[in-house]
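User: Can you write out an input/output pair for a complex, sequences first and structure second?

Assistant: Here is one pair. Inputs:
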Amino acid sequence: MDMFNAVQNKGRVELLIAYLMKDTGIIEYTPVGSIEFKIAVQKFMYLLQVVGGLDLGFKFEWLSMGPYSKGLQNYYQKISRVLANNLNRVEELDAFEQNALEAVKKLLFSVKDQTAKLDVKTLEIVASLVMLCRDVYPKPLDPVEELIKRKKLFKEDVLRIWKVIDKFGICI
Amino acid sequence: MPNSKEISRLYSGVKRIYDEVHGYIELSEIELKIIDSSIFQRLRFIKQLAAAWYVYPGATHTRFSHSLGAMHIMGLIASRLASLGYIYSYDDVQLLRLAALLHDVGHTPFSHAIEPFYRYRLYIGHEDLSKIVILENSDIKEILSSYGYDPKTIVAILEGRYREPLYNQLLSSDLDVDRMDYLIRDALHTGVTYGSIDLHRIIATLVVDGEGNLAILDKGIDALENFYLARMHMYRAVYYHKTLVGYEMLLRKIYEYINEYTEDTLLPKSREDIVKISRSGEIALWHDDWFIGMMINMYREGKHSELKELIEAFFFRKGYKVIIDRSRFDFYPLDLDIDKDIIALQKIMNKIEDKVKTHQIALFVDDIKILDEDPHISPRIIIDGKASIPITDIENSIIRNIPRRYHIKRLYVISSKWQELKEYLMAKGFIDA
């Protein structure tokens, strides 16, 4: 059977993202399928790969809204479907996946402790700062300055998030 | 902000090449040096549309002319954005032109026909191949470096990781210079006139919104809508034409067999092999004509019957022919696991496995994106010089109503078996009489 051009089967993606959506509480105020939902999917996947160390082969570009992978376009609907059903986490995730989720959640909850909120905008800032300090070329001297130069954000807010990222030793 | 005098200085190039789409294209010194390198000359021997000339006799244009065209369009757009103050330095216009010029430098022989072989075996696509060539081939590296351009910067733009998101968008977005050139060029060479676009209207209305996204002024909305409609037509009439796809699959299968039976440095089997031929420069011969020669040799040797049958089918135009086609436009992504058509086609394949050999049959499934309602990439329209709105959110836009996806689900069989199988499937009630 020649399935060369078929959509790649990255079977765990929808499950992992659905867990993050639920566990971080983002899903509670992000309507499934909305613009915010798609932004959250992109940023969660980026963080899963980079912070969680779970390489699912998605290549991320640096766009005005931060990290973005074309490959995820096929998953928005699948993730919505998984979210509509109940998740049975204990049986479905292996240890490696659990660890990846925990690493991302630990970072995001630390950010939440500092900023008192964890919404899609915060998620976008976290993922953007991580991408700026790791994957963008040439690497900016100061990721915070680089981000606020491009976005209408309060420097204090971005700095608070940056301090958490810096403490986690994510940047290389 | 560079003024128009400075910009025109860039294009008072050292040479002009006449292009059938854009007319005269001016080349700067560094561009000419790259074009004259053996690595770039290779693109003269890679057809833009693989074996599309089996369906559209005029489709013999190459990656070479497309690369020049993409560079030219990039020059037009970057100059406009520079004159509007969105691109700050004049060197960046040249940088972007170089990135566009080199964006396809790593394409495999027969372009997208062979590329999936590497994409699914080594997880390497033509973008990765271009990256390897730019970073590993000493000619390209030296030319870029001698003019002060960092090869890693070019690669970062091609990969969409460059620090300026706008530059990434120009080369990799729904409305990028690659697509703008190939739509016009492919429409011209195939004769599929409804695939053409109003390039100059798009460029003349292109701006950058407050968030740094590429956007079109509202007066350019018709040109943008036409761009999407043209793309949709081209997908069906050209890029995924049933016969054309059949010949692409045939070439890929032949390539697989030849890879299995032959050892040759130009049949790279790993990333390291690709790096080696890029470094040695041997990659300059890795093109359509080399592969045609390889096929002729293998055919004349006649050692492997399946391979000989497939090569014969290719050269004498008796390749794979569609026997069942369930393709259709849709609004949602294709779900391979639950799609009824795909399940049915797989069942049919199982039923006929004793009637045809594996190499004589092929299932083709793909999910083509026509338009995505994604906030990261949806082109934006500037309404009344103020609000920037994704085109998919504009109520009276035609784009709201066009399908988002083209699902292709086809079963192919080699021509020599087609009639027999057709009769069998009809007798069994799998297809209508």
